[in-house]
Design goal:
Layout: E1 2-13, E2 24-40, E3 45-50, E4 57-61, H1 75-95, E5 102-109, H2 119-134, H3 141-155, H4 163-170, E6 173-177, E7 180-183, E8 192-196, H5 203-216, H6 218-239, H7 243-259, H8 265-276, E9 281-284, E10 292-296, H9 301-307, E11 314-318, E12 326-327
Parallel strand pairs: 3-5
Antiparallel strand pairs: 1-2, 1-12, 2-5, 2-6, 3-4, 6-7, 8-10, 8-11, 9-10
Helix pairs in contact: 1-2, 1-3, 2-3, 2-4, 3-4, 5-6, 6-7, 8-9
The chain binds (3R)-3-hydroxy-3-methyl-5-(phosphonooxy)pentanoic acid.
Length: 329
């Protein structure tokens, strides 16, 4: 039996613009997906899911398209979750040169599903790591991140940047610009507060919306470039440990993302609640349309304000997690 975990992440700066080659900075946070893998005697795959926002479910099948899944939750949700797990298992089988290996998997996660904190990337990275180690192969982080990216890329029809899978694999704060992914030196501990509206935006639709806007309006292309400039400033502020400037730039970034049409009433309500509570900065994080905001505040005020914000379902403090994928036990 082999157990691995991987962290979720939030975008500090640069989501959406990263799709057009601008840099982005993301931080792994101390909310993890944990996957237990155990080889079984046949070539089947059994996946048991626990504590995901999606109700727990168990699926046993042989991966054959004709093999009906017998489950009691809506099939599209299960199929989406299974797409990631199945892709990750394929990568592990490939890495171990064991195409017919059967596995029992248990997936547990405390990352809100679909809210923009990269629950899928964390599940993919932890699954590839646990399954490949269970099959006798220790993948170096670069290879693991690459394989995790391929899974997300395939399942999301090419709409994914490398940010989520790279950040979940290596942990800490990362910078992504096109194919170039790197970990940032020694980032300060930022006092993250996350507000979650309980929903999720449709990433594909939101990315397509920004693409159309950018093609039609010069202001949108300029906005994407402005986000890139802001990210470069943000990197310098981060390197200098200047939390005040990081927060200010987060506020600007939220404004620019709103101009691109990817905010939502619930996200704006949470962002303003955080600002009025005295946060150093607040913005939506990831695709937008719904899901999470991130604010910086080392006092309790923002979390309390978010708890009393009708659009906010849950608010929690998060720490930068300097560790990426890791073996458990
Ligand atoms: O919703 P997520 O976590 O897949 O984030 C989407 C962020 C985008 O920049 C819009 C796309 C991407 O893959 O970076």
């Amino acid at each position: 039996m082999t157990v691995s975990s991987a962290p979720g992440k939030l975008y500090l700066f640069g989501e959406h613009a990263v799709v057009y080659g601008e840099p982005a900075v993301a931080c792994a946070i101390d909310r993890r997906a944990r996957v237990t893998a155990e080889v079984r005697g046949d070539d089947r795959l059994r996946v048991e899911s626990r504590d995901l926002t999606l109700d727990g479910f168990t699926v046993e099948y042989d991966g054959d398209a004709g093999d009906e899944m017998d489950v009691d939750v809506p099939t599209p949700l299960v199929e989406a979750a299974m797409g990631y797990v199945e892709g990750a298992v394929e990568q592990a089988r490939d890495a171990a040169d064991a195409p017919d290996a059967g596995l029992d998997l248990i997936v547990e996660s405390d990352i809100p599903l679909g809210g923009g904190l990269s629950s899928s990337a964390a599940v993919i990275a932890a699954t590839i790591d646990a399954a490949s180690r269970e099959l006798g192969v220790d993948l170096p982080p670069g290879d693991l991140a690459d394989r995790a990216y391929r899974v997300e890329h395939d399942v999301q029809d090419g709409q994914a940047s490398r940010t989520d899978t790279f950040c979940s694999t290596v942990g800490g704060a990362v910078r992504v610009e096109g194919e170039d992914c790197r970990r940032l030196g020694d980032p300060p501990n930022l006092p993250f507060v996350v507000g979650y509206d309980g929903g999720a935006g449709d990433t594909g639709e939101l990315v397509a919306g920004v693409r159309e806007l950018r093609e039609e309006y010069d202001f949108a292309a300029d906005t994407v470039r402005a986000i890139g400039d802001l990210v470069r400033r943000g990197e310098r502020a981060l390197a200098a440990g200047d939390v005040g400037t990081v927060g200010r730039l987060m506020d600007f970034d939220h404004g620019l993302l709103s101009a691109l049409g990817v905010s939502a009433r619930s996200l704006d309500a949470m962002v303003w609640a955080a600002r009025e509570a005295g946060a150093d900065g607040a913005k939506l994080t990831s695709a937008g349309g719904g899901g999470c905001i991130v604010a910086l505040d080392d006092s309790r005020a923002t979390r309390t304000a978010l708890k009393y914000t009708p659009d906010c379902e849950t608010a929690f403090r998060a720490e930068l997690d300097r560790e990426g994928v890791r073996a458990e036990e």
